Each structure stands twice: as C-alpha cells, then as structure tokens.
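ok so dumb question maybe but i'm new to this and my supervisor (M.) told me to 'just get the structure for histidine kinase' and walked off. so i did the thing. is this what she meant?? sequence i used:
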Amino acid sequence: MVSHLELDALLEALVHAAGRLTGAGYAAIGVLAGDRTRLARFVEVGADDVTHDRLEPLPSGRGLLGVAHDAPRLVRIEDVREHPAFDGFPPGHPALTSFLTAPVLVDGEAWGMLYLADRAEGDFGPRELETAQRLAAWAGIAAGNAEAYARSERDRLALEAAVQGLEAMVDIMLAVGTEPDLAEVLAVIARRGRSLAVARAVVIGLREGDEIVVGALDGEVGTLAVGQRFSLRDSLAAKALARRGAVRAVSGDPVLERFEMVVGRGVLTAVTAVPLVHRDEVLGILEVVDDGDPPPELDAQRRRLIESFAASASVAIAAARRASDERMRTALRAQEHERMRWARELHDDTLQELAALTMELATARRAIDHPEARARLEHAMQRATRQVEGLRALITELRPLGLDDLGLAAGIEELAARFTGATGIATSLDLDDVQQAPRLDPDVETAAYRITQEALTNVGRHSGATHADIVVRQDGWIDLRVTDDGRGFSLGSPAAGFGLEGMRERAGLVGGSLEVLPGAGGTTIHARLPALLAAPDPTTEDQESV
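this is what came out, is it supposed to look like this??
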C-alpha cells in the first residue's frame, strides 16, 4: 500500500532514477486529472529553481504532450522541434531535443505519462526504451496501490461516519422516548452533533416567527447562551433556510461580523448552518462552529454527514416538540379545568353564603336600636362586603365566568373593566369581529384571554402608560393587539422578560405566534391565533332535534 503523500515522494525518486538510468537531462512524470484531458500533478527534475519558477504551474497538455495524452503509448522522437505536433516551448522553458514518453497505466487505463528528454549521449536507444517502460510499469503499480488504499480508506471513513451517525441517532431517539423535556433532547442533539462533526461547538436554534432562539449549545461560542434570541434578518441562518441546504461562512463575512457583535469579537472562525426542516415545516437551524486559520474547506463527505444528521435530528425535534407541546396543553387544560372548578365552587357556595350573611347582617342592623350594637353590625357588614368583592375578584382571576358562558369578547370586556378599576389606566376596546362571530375553540379562547391578561398586567406594572388599546380582528385568524402609550422598553431589558415566554408558549400551543413590537412611544403585543371554531354542543343538538 502506498498513501498519497508516500506516492509523491516515490514519484520524485522514480523521476530521479529515470534520469540517471537513461542519461536524460530532463525527466518528469505527469499525473492526469479525473477527466483525462489535463494534468493534475507534475513531478520533474532537470530544471533549476529559477527556470521552474518562470514556467507555468502545470503544462497545459498542448503540442507533443497533447499527443501523448490522447494516445498513451511509447513514443520516441530524435528532435522534438521537427515533429508535426510541436508548437514551440513556453517562455523560459529550456530548449529540448531528443524526447521519450512512456504511459503509466492503472488497471489498463491511462493514469499519467513518464517524460524523458535531452539524453547526454545522443538519442534514446532500445535499452532506454525498456528502462522507461519498466519504470512506468512500476509507477503504475504504486499508483494502483495508492488508489486502492485511498478507496479503502474512504470506505473505512464512510463506514465509521455511518456507525457514528447511527449511534448518535439511537441516543437521540432514546432521549425522545425517555426525556420529559424538549430542552434535554436538544442538549443530546447538540452534544452528539458536535462529536460527529468533530467541531468546536454546535448550536441548535429554534425558529419563533422572525427570530431564532438558542435551544441548546454544546461547546463555547463567546458569550452565547441558551435562551438568547436573534433576528433572522440578513443572518447565516436565513441564508441556509432560504437555500434549504448547508451554508458556510468564514471569518470576515458580514453575517458573522453581525453575530460577533453579540457573542464577542474574534470568536468565530468558520460556521456551517444547516436548516432543521420536517415535513416542510421549518423548525430551526443547526450551526457547526469550527476552528482553523485559515478555516479548512468543508469537504463533501462531511457536508453530507452534517446534513444527514440534521435531517434525522429534525425528525427527533419534531417528535419531542409534539410530545412537549401535548404535555403542556394537557397541563394547561388541567390547570384551567381546576381554575374553573374552584371558580364555580367559590361562586356557587362561598360567595352565595357570604352574600346571604351580608343580607342577614343588614336585616339585623335595621332591627336593633342600640347605637353601639348598630355600629358593630355596620362594621361587620362592611368587612363582609369587602370579602364579597375580594372573592368576586378572585373568582374572575381564577376563571372569568363570562368567558365560559358568553365567549371571548365578554371575557375581555370584563377583564378590561377590572384592569381600569384597579390601575386607573383607561382602556378602549374594538371587539366587533369576535362579538358577531361563532364561539371559538375553548383552547383558543383561553389562549387569547390569558395573553390579553398578561399583556395588561405588564402595562400596569412596567409601562407607565395612561391608556391601552385592545383590538381583536377575526378573518380566518384571530389577530390580537394590546397597545399602550407608555415609555416602551428594550427587548434586552429585564422588564421584557415578564410573562413574554408564557405568552409565546400560549400562542404556540394552539398553532399561533406572538411578537413584541417595542417603541419609544409604547409597546404592542401582537398575537395571531388560528380561528378554530368550537365543536357543536351535543346537548343543544339533542334539544334542537327534539
């Protein structure tokens, strides 16, 4: 076996030997490229360094060399200048006279040519022809061994990559089946992806609207951390998603410079971004961070390996997210059901008892003439009334009965009135679309109500606003906007984190999205939710049929 590096050294030694054994003043071996029309390598002796530097990097294969390439056979010429195919020497090339070529064959196919010229003792004779043929045959054997070794090495590396890829996917699928949290599955994907790609770091980003959220990170990339958000605009991730394939950028590329403004200067040398797509749904991006100065080019095999891993990881992420979303939906439904149960029990039992007690105290007060006793009863009535009002507020906070009985518009109207009463911040409502529309799916109504509730809570706590607008449009989608006239905030500020993740989760779990539009003159929370209609009430259908 002869490796490529060993083959270069062997070819150089063979050229030196050919020159000595044949008496040639100039000797060379040219290795044909894959298309067999040009030279890929050229090893020569006989030209000094100055002359060599003046020549083209590789002979172009015209003239006599072209004849040798087109019909690889033993060729002997007494004076190259008299041959019909001779078209002159390149500038700076030493003048040659006698010329001898012998083909180097591998498995019967032309692999290269041995060139000999300017024999010191005159023309090349039969002995030199036999020597040239023998040396060319040895070169063919070495080349054949080298190519066989390269093929076996490629096969071995491909097999190793396939096994590693299979092991990685087994680990990931086990994580999907056993881990309760999407974050844990993403962490396994990042860890195995980094090992498979032999990279400095691997980043998993999940798409949320026009942003990428870092879901997992294995390795170090400056100050980058899980949970950070980045705009897709003019990013490497956006290029990969548009191409639906791997995209590579190296240090100095503007897309990396913008990223380094966040994670730290000089952090990135080379990054390969591969989209995570499942059934035409864009889930996010997998980014492989490499070291190297200059960075090594991403070879085809490694690119295929990374893209294959990303495709398999996409399936796992989609499955893990479905499971995580379903667990979250189940938990939220159970939570809302429990809230509804408590609200009903408090309304039907405790609130009614307190209301009845308040009426009895009022009756007793009217029946008693003693001033001190009347004052005590008045005080007790006031306390009971406050408890009734507090209990009503608690019931509404737990689960507004108007939302369940009358729908989204009634729930938001009640919420806005309570918000204004508690904060003094005026609200204006535009709910005509949902007031006139059929009832929505309970999960969608609950999501829209809770998003509005959390948005108003943020307005009351952080904005310094004097007015809030609530607009809900319905046209295939529920388009919900809560806008205030406060001082606004930066998405990077601590205030920005209050409840935003919860609102995004609520929207995402019903198939919608949420964006925050901050500005100097206020902030808008914008949610888009699918306008799924409620299932028909079987009780109502039975009554109608009767």
